[in-house]
Amino acid sequence: MQFTLKMIPIAGAIALALAGSAHAQEQVVKIGHTGPLTGSNAFAGKDDENGVRLAVEELNAKKLTIGGKQIKFELQSEDDQCDPKAGVNAAQKLVDGGVKFVLGPYCSGVAIPASRIYNEAGVMMSTVGTNAKVTEGGYKNLFRIVASDSQIGSSMAVYAAKILKVKTVGVIDDRTAFGQGLAQEFIKEAKKSGLKVVGQEYTTDKATDFATILTNMKSKNADVIFFGGYAPQGAPMARQMKQLALKAKLLGGDTLCSPEMGKLGGDAVNDVVLCAQGGAILDKVADGPAFKAKYKKRFNQDADVYAASFYDQTMFIAQAMQKSNSVDPVKVGAEMYKTSHKGVAGTYSYDEKGNMKQAPVTVFTFKNGVPVALASY
């Protein structure tokens, strides 16, 4: 056949049609993240985001096909500032952007109001908010991907009674949903374990001066002080305990298990701070060291408290998409409720409320400013 110039537009049209057909076979699935990307807890929010990002990049490299279409995951991350109002705005922005799967929030005080927004929009939410109220709203497709306050708080009370063998405890909380919930669970289990609560004090999640509170605790001879709050307050609290020659240990939840405690608290945290974190000891689980290594290679920093949990849950969501052959959150969630996923930090399976059926808790202390695991329960 003789080739003519008239054929060029036809050939171009065919090429464009083929390209359009190929493009139609790719489907973008947006994965949302919300957490504190600014402010004193930004280190945690960025760490969580990195966990999701690492999973998204690995999933895209695998070129998954679901429902006959190649899936491309896109991450949309929003700063909720650990503030309820900002958190609701961030949630609405993700919903308006067509996001159907959200990892976060980090803070319980954000997770509780944001969960309503996501539920009404049919969005799946996977959070590390540990306050019991987070999963008591009756919402489907809401998953808590770590141990709850009741598990973490009670673990520290049992540890204080049976391992540290103390008799008296003082309790401080920062009045946030997280801090209050954690402190209440600690007090409940402490009393069951025969410990005497000799003092209860309150602060805020913006405070930096704890001298008056700690002086009161010292006068009451508390053997240990339990703090329901975050690392940016826990670290200066440990420093001020040292300045006041207060001999008590400082106990707390997962938020005090962060390397940020060592950065902000210096040698004041060493052998003084003990904390409980949901999950197993990464160095002692099969895939833990490899995850830590690839995280550091990708982001040029060490993984913090929940990077592995956010990574694992993102992978679980993708696994459920494949098994259900769908990217519909309803179908994906139904698959997640009836199956499980073996991740880096543990095995993920959920009850009807979205709580983990088995959530190991690890107790840490600090050596040379770095959290060191003592035992897992």
- Per CATH, what is the topology of the largest domain? Rossmann fold
Q: Ends: how far apart?
A: 78 Å
Summed up, the helix count is 12
The CATH architecture of the largest domain: 3-Layer(aba) Sandwich
* Percent helix range: 40-55%
Number of strands: 15
CATH class of the largest domain equals: Alpha Beta
Describe this structure in words.
- The protein is an alpha/beta fold.
- 43% of the residues lie in helices and 21% in strands.
- The chain has 12 helices and 15 strands.
- The strands form 3 sheets. A 7-stranded mixed sheet has the order 8-7-9-10-11-14-15, with helices on both faces. Strands 2-3-1-4-5-6 form a 6-stranded mixed sheet, with helices on both faces.
- Strand 12 and strand 13 (347-348) form a beta hairpin.
- The longest helix has 21 residues, at 42-62.
- The protein is elongated.
- The termini are far apart.
